[in-house]
Amino acid sequence: TQLLEQSPQFLSIQEGENLTVxxxxxxxxxxxxxxxxxxxxxxxxxxxxxxxGEVKKLKRLTFQFGDARKDSxxxxxAAQPGDTGLYLCAGARTGTASKLTFGTGTRLQVTL
Amino acid sequence: xxxxxxxxxxLIKTRGQQVTLSCSPISGHRSVSWYQQTPxxxxxxxxxxxxxxxxxxxNFPGRFSGRQFSNSRSEMNVSTLELGDSALYLCxxxxxxxxxxxxxxxxxxxxxxx
Lengths: 112, 114
Prior knowledge:
The complex is a heterodimer.
Chain A: E1 5-7, E2 10-14, E3 19-24, E4 31-37, E5 44-49, E6 55-58, E7 61-65, E8 71-76, E9 85-93, E10 96-102, E11 106-111
Parallel strand pairs in A: 2-11
Antiparallel strand pairs in A: 1-3, 3-8, 4-5, 4-9, 6-7, 7-8, 9-10, 9-11
Chain B: E1 5-7, E2 10-13, E3 19-24, E4 31-38, E5 42-50, E6 53-57, E7 64-68, E8 74-78, E9 87-94, E10 104-105, E11 109-113
Parallel strand pairs in B: 2-11
Antiparallel strand pairs in B: 1-3, 3-8, 4-5, 4-9, 5-6, 7-8, 9-10, 9-11
């Protein structure tokens, strides 16, 4: 059973467009992380959010943790080819804080 | 500083064989976690070690095992390999146990079982 569903599964956009990736669950998470993974490499941590309603910005990327800590979103402004990759959300649940549950993934391709 | 190092990068094994994968964490990191990544199931947690003790274990059969040494290096072992064990095995290290410290992943070991 996949506890974290991401949408969309695939996204192909042109440089300069904006996009939002969603990560949804029926479970509450104590914290949520976003990673980007490129082919042949391991995931790279982008951000960790721990408070319901929290918003974090990383240059053109904006991350939000839902008020109820069951969902999150990643918004990219003016996408660039370098943003291409697999975006993964991952949640930690209270009591098993070191065990991450990963989302289904969103594969983003940004073309010129 | 050096990142998380996983060896080997690629491995081809035959059904029924066993395999050992190695992970050297970032210097100073004492927590090591292992994940399996497949196209169908995505990333799934295998186990986590901290100070040579297994702290958490995922829902994998007993054929999957691991250990951590006093220098924080970790190995995972899969016995009696099955075709379905073909996957990218990722190791992640952290300063201490708990995700709040942030995980750094290695590039993985690509295991193919034929």
